[in-house]
Amino acid sequence: MVSPLAGTLTQHPIDVEKLRQQFWHPEGEISPVKFGTSGHRGQLGAGFCARHALAIAQAVARIHLEDKIEGPVLCGGDTRLMSHDTAVLCAEVLTANGLHVILPEMALPTPVFSFEIIHGRASACLNGTASHNPPQDMGLKYNPSHGGPAGSELTTRIAQYANEYLKNPAEIKRISLEEARAKGLIKQADLITPYVESLGKMVDFESIRKSGLKIAIHPLGGSSLPFYRAIQEKYQLQNMHIVSQTQDPSFYFIPIDHDGKIRMDPSSKYPMSPLIEYVKSGEYDFAGASDPDADRFGCATAKGGLISPNHALCVMADYLIKHKNPAKDMQIGRTLGTTSLLDRIAKANGYGLDEQNVGFKHFVDGIVGGRYILAGEESAGMSMSGWTPEKDGILAVCLLMEIMSVGGDIATLYQGLTEQYGLPYYTRVDVPTDEEAKKRVQSFKKEDLKDLQSVAGEKVTGVRDSDGIKVYLENAWFLVRPSGTENILKFYAETFVNEQHLQQILEEGRKIFGV
Asked: Which of 153, 166, 168, 487 is the most exposed place for a label (fewest CB within 10 A)?
């Protein structure tokens, strides 16, 4: 059978029962626990299975006991096939170690885990998700007491302990949920109302309601669905319509991505194609989406079609500066691979710019410390001080709804910014590779490029080697970094000159690093 074209619905339904069996009875050698930028992930089976969940949960229990961390652990996950089973396994292990657990029956967005932690109702969380990865994938991430993604020191410790338990599973403690409930170690909680009520302090829903803006929301089959329903009801948004309420772990209803895989990515034009059609046809003015665990956002507008996350972040940053009156000692935070148009917006308005390594964990201290007007990354993650130190796709979509209601089409607003500050030409290329090539790139240091004077006709103004290698030019930059979870090298480049200059940077930059 011929594979379907990108953007069409899959012609190859996923064998859910086979994947379920792989979770409980994996074939082949079990992969060791390895935390990337946000948790351990792998394909159901040897990449991620029940044994991984049990080992990671026992590792977390051990850390809580060693470090005398008090308070319940929130265990849950998104709408993926084995998310709830993973949460149950975690709860069985944690309670066997005497820890209290909050175990919701419903799927839960990643930002809501964080929200519960920072408001003191949970001490930490174990969250079963693989974000927007294909349905065959599964993962487990841990957020400690600050509410954001765990830092490298802590995840290294979790992985070390978990891999010990993979080798010695007899050391893992486990009791049934019935026994845990009988001991009073498991409780339920209302996890929708507090989040939705607090969101009203961050977003002007009254302006959205009065705007008459025609809004389409697509949860992409994810955990945000009941939260968007609650937002719609509480803030009486008759002009907001949830255009898909389907939840199915095969995600068969999501158009396939560029590579023939189902990928619930709200920043890709293929999975987002139904929403793009909604706004192109004039049926809606704005369409917003969140991925399955709702930590990433996507949007499309009548004038701009699918909006790049970089463009949306710039519009959000400019809007927050002009409409929310942030303190002058605050900054815009962005990751290494995110557009430097944010730098120009910050500077022009008298604010600082904080460039961090890839991974939202690097923004945690700044968000908690009240430093960020906005913290964002090119892969469609954002949050801000006064909110959660986790990426929040629901917040982002709602803020973009407010901006559309108050200021006009996101695409028009972005065009205005480029007319004022310059038009950036940006790309990211994922280059297939192997572990050897990834290690070679990782070994590069800025001293290795001390003799590099110019690239693509522009003077080299700096080099950073904290996360891959980033080379700064007079009006451009490029970055190469290995993926933490896949055998690919990510090559980013941006210039304010022209498209031809961007291609020249790509060509010369890839030669420099041999990729």
From this structure: 153
- Same structural domain, 276 and 345: yes
Half-sphere exposure of 175 (CA within 13 A, CB side): 18
Residue range 388-435, pLDDT digits in tens: 999 999 999 999 999 999 999 999 999 999 999 999 999 999 888 888
Rounded mean pLDDT, 462-469: 94
Range of the domain at 68: 16-191
Determine the pLDDT at residue 58.
98
The distance in angstroms from the start CA to the end CA of the chain is 34
Is 326 domain-assigned?
A: yes
Sheet order of strands, 425-432 included: 425-432, 488-495, 476-482, 469-473, 458-464, 454-455
79 within some domain:
yes
pLDDT for 2 equals 47
Model confidence at 190, in pLDDT bands (50, 70, 90)? Answer: very high
Residue 327 burial class via C-beta count within 10 angstroms: exposed 0-12, middle 13-18, buried 19 and up: exposed
At 150 the three-state DSSP class reads coil
| Rounded distance between C-alpha atoms, residue 32 and residue 259, angstroms | 27
pLDDT band with cut points at 50, 70 and 90 for residue 3: low
The two structure tokens encoding residue 514: 């041999």
Q: Pairing relation of β-strands 381-383 and 352-356?
A: unpaired
Q: Are 96 and 75 contacting, i.e. CB atoms less than 8 angstroms apart?
A: no
> Do residues 445 and 508 share a domain?
yes
User: What's the average model confidence in pLDDT over 1-24?
Assistant: 84
Range list of H helices, 101-190: 110-118, 152-167, 177-182
**By percentage, how much of the chain surpasses pLDDT 70?**
99
Asked whether residue 5 is assigned to any structural domain, the reply reads no
- Do residues 161 and 26 share a domain? yes
Residues 203, 68, single domain; the answer is no
pTM score above 0.90: yes
Given this model, what pLDDT does residue 442 score?
Answer: 85
On whether both 360 and 380 belong to a single domain, the answer is yes
Q: Closest Cα to residue 352, out of 387, 317, 381?
A: 317
Question: Which of 38, 83, 123, 131 is the catalytic position?
Answer: 131
The mean pLDDT of the chain is 95
Q: Say if residue 400 is in the same domain as residue 330.
A: yes
159 lies in the same domain as 62: yes
Average pLDDT over residues 185-206: 97
Structure token digits, residue 412: 């028009």
Active-site residue, 176 included: no
Domain edge (last residue) among 133, 168, 191? 191
Q: In this structure, are 24 and 120 located in the same domain? A: yes
| CATH code at position 273 | 3.40.120.10
Is the C-alpha dihedral spanning 189, 190, 196, 199 positive or negative? Answer: negative
**C-alpha separations of 216 from 210, 227, 285, 306, 482 in Å:** 16, 15, 8, 13, 36
**Amino acid residing at 338:** T
Q: Looking at the 3D structure of the chain, how many domains does it have?
A: 3
* The domain boundary residue, chosen from 403, 421, 439: 421
**Is 476:456 a contact under the CB 8 Å cutoff?**
yes
